[in-house]
Amino acid sequence: MVLCAVRQHLLRGSRGAWARFLQRQSRGCVYSSVHGFQQEEIREKLQAFPGGSIELLTQESGLAVLTINYPSRMNAFSGSMMVDLEERVSQLEGWTDGKGLIVQGASGTFCSGSDLNAVRALSNPQDGMKMCMFMQNTLTRLLRLPMISVALVEGRALGGGAELTTACDFRVMAPGSVIQFVHKHMGLVPGWGGAARLVRIVGSQNALKLLGGAVKVDPELALQIGLAEEVLQREGAGTPLQRAENWLSVYTKGPAPVIQAVKKVVLSGRELPLSEALRTEKDVFGTVWGGPANMQALASKSKHR
């Protein structure tokens, strides 16, 4: 993958825990040509199955909204939409003012996984593995974005759609919505990284129940097991998207460099051994200590009042 190779080259001579962390992330790329993965090859194959789109709206507030848009297929991912998603993630990686991201589906439903037209056409094991690696790369990069993300789940999040929710830092659910890992019914297991992320979110026992039982997770159960952080009230001011924005704004209030630093230290704590995470935290701390937000706070506030 070109982006991964460039980033590795740029960081090869760097020092410090943060540099090592970035190198280890390789821009979120789990797979590269070392693993037999050729991104352009699978992109071409995926582009042959068009339909729908992935739309990205960035706002001056530092909040972005990513919309999965294929209502006639319950927002299932066509091949071209998988490529769209990777391109939108690339845009977000380069958005220096970003603080928060909401991932939603169009027309009141989240996402029903993969479009079966693309799935049938890529049903041989070799193409299936390449698609798996492509989507694991993309969703890992989504989770590692230097901004706080939340999946707004309305309607149904099924299969790959359920996996997509786990690639966000948080999940909020509308009343009547469902998250369901239906892979077993298709003779499969998650392939977009959803199982590994699910274990980290709800624990191995709950993950085994959800995957083995293909359990329909409603908002009440999601809250109980920690899969969701909030259920949006049926009655309330504004649309579900506006209410999700209000929920997220609690965690994205403040200057972008500070919010991004928060995400970086949490990310390093989640992914790195303790000693390396501590060194990374020190390096990130150094990027904000004495910075504009820090100096302004020192001038205007006192902890001891």
UniProtKB/TrEMBL annotation:
Record SUPFAM superfamilies: ClpP/crotonase (SSF52096)
Catalytic activity as recorded in UniProt: (2S)-ethylmalonyl-CoA + H(+) = butanoyl-CoA + CO2; (2R)-ethylmalonyl-CoA + H(+) = butanoyl-CoA + CO2; (S)-methylmalonyl-CoA + H(+) = propanoyl-CoA + CO2
Function comment: Decarboxylates ethylmalonyl-CoA, a potentially toxic metabolite, to form butyryl-CoA, suggesting it might be involved in metabolite proofreading. Acts preferentially on (S)-ethylmalonyl-CoA but also has some activity on the (R)-isomer. Also has methylmalonyl-CoA decarboxylase activity at lower level.
GO cellular component: cytosol
Alphabetized UniProt keyword annotations: Cytoplasm, Lyase
Entry's family note: Belongs to the enoyl-CoA hydratase/isomerase family.
GO biological process: fatty acid beta-oxidation
InterPro entries to which the protein is assigned, alphabetical: ClpP/crotonase-like_dom_sf, Enoyl-CoA_hyd/isom_CS, Enoyl-CoA_hydra/iso
Enzyme class: lyase
Keyword match Nucleotide-binding: no
The keyword Cytoplasm is annotated on this UniProt entry: yes
Enzyme Commission identifier(s): 4.1.1.94
GO molecular function, one term: methyl/ethyl malonyl-CoA decarboxylase activity
Compartment(s) where it occurs, according to its Swiss-Prot or TrEMBL record: Cytoplasm, Cytosol
Protein name in the entry: Ethylmalonyl-CoA decarboxylase
Taxonomic source organism: Champsocephalus esox
Main location per the UniProt record: cytoplasm
